[in-house]
Structure prediction request, 385 residues.
Amino acid sequence: MIWAIVALLAIFSFLPVYSAASNLAYTGGNGQTFGYFVKHFVHLFLGFSIIYGIHKIPYRYFRGLSMVMFPVILILLVVTLLQGTTIAGANASRWIRIPVVGFTFQPSTLAALVLMVYVARYLSKNFEENITFKSSMLNLWLPVFIVLVLILPANFSTAAIIFFMIIVLVFLGGYPIRYLAAIVGMAIMGLMFFIMTAKLFPEAMPNRVDTWNSRIEHFLDNKDTAEDYQIEKAKIAIATGSFYGLGPGKSVQKNFLPQSSSDFIFAIIIEEYGLIGGVFLILLYSLLLFRIVVVAQKADSVFGKLTTIGVGLPIIFQALINMGVAVELFPVTGQTLPLISSGGTSIWVTCLAIGIILSVSAKREEIRNQSGDEQSPLDILSETL
Prediction:
């Protein structure tokens, strides 16, 4: 079922991405859109290869791999920050270029996945023990805060989403609520200290805090900003789509809406496929969430349960944020629509997460096949759903 959902999302993504790419082709390219279609196909092909390869690995190995990958993501995050603040007008402190192949990669996205598995490992290891605040600060929260501090200067929204998802995961993992409240309070104070430091030394992080302020002020006060232009065009696209949509490739706002093939792809989908297309997309994500919960509930270990929730929930949460931004429920965050938006990093890391979930599910199937238990009709119906 998860394979089918992911395949449907990937297939559905081709037409809106190909349509929205015309804006990129005529403003920054040679006018040919087919190259963007091929690029998106390559990203998805590599993504499905990642799913297949990862789901063949027994998920218990990810416990140790999270420890091995942790210093790797720290190095990658430091390297991206040392690149400087801008390259050709773009925010370079979010991306790193892979040598030889020429792909750009966003380490913060991979860091989020590794961090969720790391937290699941800690919680499962101490699940039946009394967790003390002192020990958890050193072994759990210190690594988390180090990663978030490296991500925060360049990408506040990603850092905030990662922190929120970790809070949800540790809550579900039985972490004491009184300690959790203290951690949230410390995080808020740390964020305030960072903002004050950035205000006092603006040359260290030019324009970042100002960007956050402008986005929040626009969202609250409806001021005239670049984000206001994006939201206005997105809402025009959604209103134009009505119930049935204009039809595949017939979007008008894709020619005016920045990031129409990535951050605001949901608005283009509604414009071309109408409310029907939007509801279909939401149903697919809802079904994926249901299957993630089923896999977590039936996992054979605490680590499997927490890992499935830890890597699966962020996919759905990111999708909700992307859709919410398009309809102005949230400020502009720059989050892509998983498995739909163009962009290699988002697709690959999402596919990596899906592969981990399938690895947990495959282990349960292996145990069931070895036990030879008979399934009741109710079990068969549950599996089908």
